[in-house]
Design brief:
This protein has a domain at 46-143. 33% of the residues lie in helices and 28% in strands. It contains four helices and four strands, in the order αββααββα. A hairpin with a 2-residue loop joins β3 and β4.
Length: 155
């Protein structure tokens, strides 16, 4: 009987405590006017050059071999493109470069494991600058780029 009374007292005390608990929400608001940012904006194009790095031996080309275990291959769903992308990323980290120029890949997959060989030229971006008229002429020749015609606002 004594246990039942103590148990009832504990239950009552906990119900009283829960009943006193207040839930509060803090709302922050501002009176600042919001400006619609859907207006078009234009950024001047940037141009950069690629500088092919030379290794300690004076050679520019690299040959890296990357091995991927079964877990790596499974995490990439065994997709060759993902394996090549991962190998290229690892090569850029190894050679402290931004890009591998003219990369060539040899991919070997066997027994759930993969080996990817990366051949190419590590390069870094240099000489960033705003595009000039002479750059647009070069782009027209090399990539077929045609700038939009100028808009005559005097009409």
């Amino acid at each position: 009987m004594k246990k039942a009374v103590v148990t009832l007292c504990l239950i009552a005390a906990s119900m009283i405590t829960v009943g006193c608990y207040e839930v509060s929400t803090i709302v922050r608001d501002t009176q600042v006017k919001m400006v619609d940012m859907n207006a078009p904006s234009y950024v001047k194009p940037l141009v950069a050059e690629l500088l092919v790095k030379k290794g300690i031996d004076g050679e520019s080309s690299i040959r890296d071999e990357w091995k991927f275990n079964e877990d790596d291959v499974l995490s990439m769903n065994g997709e060759v493109e993902k394996l090549k992308n991962r190998a290229a990323f690892l090569s850029t980290q190894k050679h402290l470069c931004d890009v591998i120029v003219s990369p060539m890949f040899d991919v070997y997959i066997a027994d759930g494991k993969a080996t990817v060989v990366v051949n190419g030229y590590p390069a870094v971006y240099v000489n960033f600058r705003t595009m000039e008229d002479s750059d647009t002429t070069w782009l027209q020749v090399t990539s077929g780029y045609r700038p939009a015609p100028a808009i005559n606002s005097n009409k």
